[in-house]
């Protein structure tokens, strides 16, 4: 068997040498050649992050700005109590103002009552304030965020989901970054709370670790963080108000990140940073149907933002060349252009190549991505992970991860086409249709 594979590999390489198109299809050069420098940049940033952690002294005590936590709530029910309790129980010595905004409070009476039931608990936690904000008219996620921002009294505001809980040191570690007056936003990390549910949740747990902890830790070292998560984003309140808060529409997290970056050319000292140890925990879809429905919205929103809302303003004169190139590279190219190219390459390979060549090409691609995934995951375990034993328990999932990544990229292409053709961003669970229809885009 080994001899046959070697002969097939030799035959394939000889054919590829005389037929570059074959090698192009087999190795997906747009993916390999363009992803490798980007992955190399991330790995370099992670090594730099680790070295900086070793030599940076512990921050001095005494920096205790008031923190406002805006919790967007819609049909979370009693789960919101876990979120509120995790914020009441923070080890931060300063004042924390907790602002659950209950969207559509009349039809979400269960969530409203659950939040109000936490009011007596506040007396047991010094320097904690809880103000429940019922929004009787359903206005969507952005409406809830801006409602919280309008009444927030803290110098730092956190945008949090109503079904997310947090490590006890989350606020303290997040606040430390704002000692630097140039930091205007911090991307917190999210871990999968229900990872033990089944294989689907475990694959998403690996994805979250690699993208939200590992990758962002590397990107933050060069001030090129690609997105501040909507479920766990931290901002300097004065700067956020200066921008006018969140904008109407869907994909409000990436939208706000892009809007912040439009200040970077005029104010190159500004920074969006990330911290893999500012941890929140969230539940992810545990069925394929729910997972693909979620990604249909997430990936479809990319097309809405890139091609409709921001296509005239994403330029280096506003973002600066560094962030503009990263937007072209990791955003437009990887997330929007490469997925349909991947589908076309697979179709070409399967239709116009022999079975032996197709199998060998796919096997070669799988081995490459498996090796790359293993390398990055081990680097995460050694240099980044704050829960190495938990993350090490997911290593057995890694051989399946290239298939998961391939499936999500193919689905991403379909989601983008769905958004461009049917304007699906106007049919989002993040806001009622009448709110989205009033938006310009």
Describe what this molecule looks like in 3D:
- The chain has 441 residues and is of the alpha/beta class.
- The chain has helices at 2-18, 20-27, 29-55, 79-88, 109-116, 141-151, 170-177, 199-220, 237-243, 252-261, 288-309, 316-319, 321-352, 355-383, 388-392, 401-422, 433-437; strands spanning 67-73, 96-103, 128-130, 133-135, 156-161, 165-166, 183-192, 232-236, 271-282.
- Strands 1, 2, 3, 4, 5, 6, 7, 8 and 9 form a nine-stranded mixed sheet that branches.
- α4 links the parallel β1 and β2.
- The termini are far apart.
Total separate domains: 2
Average pLDDT confidence is 86
Q: Which ranges are low-confidence, i.e. pLDDT below 50, for 5 or more consecutive residues?
A: none
Instruction: Kindly name the structural category.
Output: alpha/beta
CATH topology of the largest domain: Spore Coat Polysaccharide Biosynthesis Protein SpsA, Chain A
Order of helices and strands: HHHEHEHEEHEEHEHEHHEHHHHHHH
Radius of gyration: 23 Å
- Annotation field: number of helices: 17
- In the CATH classification, which architecture of the largest domain applies? Alpha-Beta Complex
N-C termini distance: 57 Å
């Amino acid at each position: 068997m080994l001899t046959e594979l070697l002969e097939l590999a030799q035959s394939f390489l000889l054919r590829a040498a005389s037929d570059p198109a074959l090698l192009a299809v087999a190795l997906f050069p747009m993916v390999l050649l363009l992803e490798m420098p980007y992955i190399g940049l991330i790995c370099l940033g992670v090594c730099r992050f680790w070295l900086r952690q070793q030599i940076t002294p512990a921050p001095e005590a005494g920096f205790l700005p008031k923190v406002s936590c805006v919790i967007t709530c819609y049909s979370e029910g009693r789960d919101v109590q876990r979120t509120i309790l995790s914020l009441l129980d923070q080890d931060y010595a300063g004042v924390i103002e907790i602002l659950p905004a209950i969207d559509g409070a009349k039809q979400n009476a269960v969530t409203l009552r659950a939040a109000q039931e936490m009011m007596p608990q506040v007396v047991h936690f010094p320097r904690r304030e809880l103000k429940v904000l019922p929004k009787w008219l359903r206005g969507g996620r952005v409406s809830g965020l801006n409602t919280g921002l309008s009444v927030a009294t803290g110098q730092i505001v956190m945008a949090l989901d109503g079904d997310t809980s947090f490590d006890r040191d989350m606020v303290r570690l997040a606040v430390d970054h704002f000692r630097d007056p140039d930091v205007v936003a911090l991307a917190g990390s999210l871990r999968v709370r229900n990872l033990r549910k089944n294989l689907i949740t475990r694959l998403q747990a690996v994805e979250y670790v690699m993208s939200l902890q590992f990758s962002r830790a590397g990107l933050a070292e060069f001030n090129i963080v690609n997105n501040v998560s909507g479920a766990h984003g931290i901002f300097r309140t004065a700067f956020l108000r200066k921008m006018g808060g969140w904008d109407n529409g869907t994909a409000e997290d990436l939208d706000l990140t892009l809007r912040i970056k439009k200040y970077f050319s005029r104010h190159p000292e500004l920074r969006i940073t990330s911290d893999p140890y500012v941890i929140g925990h969230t539940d992810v879809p545990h069925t394929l149907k729910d997972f693909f429905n979620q990604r249909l919205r997430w990936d479809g929103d990319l097309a809405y933002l890139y091609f409709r809302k921001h296509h005239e303003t994403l330029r280096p004169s506003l973002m600066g060349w560094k962030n503009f190139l990263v937007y072209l590279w990791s955003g437009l190219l990887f997330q929007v252009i490469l997925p349909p190219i991947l589908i076309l390459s697979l179709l070409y390979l399967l239709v116009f190549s022999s079975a032996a060549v197709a199998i060998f090409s796919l096997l070669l691609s799988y081995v490459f991505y498996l090796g790359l995934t293993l390398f990055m995951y081990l680097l995460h375990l050694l240099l980044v992970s704050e829960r190495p034993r938990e993350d090490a328990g997911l290593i057995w999932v890694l051989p399946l991860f290239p298939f998961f990544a391939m499936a999500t990229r193919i689905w991403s292409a379909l989601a983008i086409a769905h958004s461009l053709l049917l304007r699906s961003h106007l049919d989002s669970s993040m806001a009622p249709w009448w709110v989205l229809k009033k938006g310009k885009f």
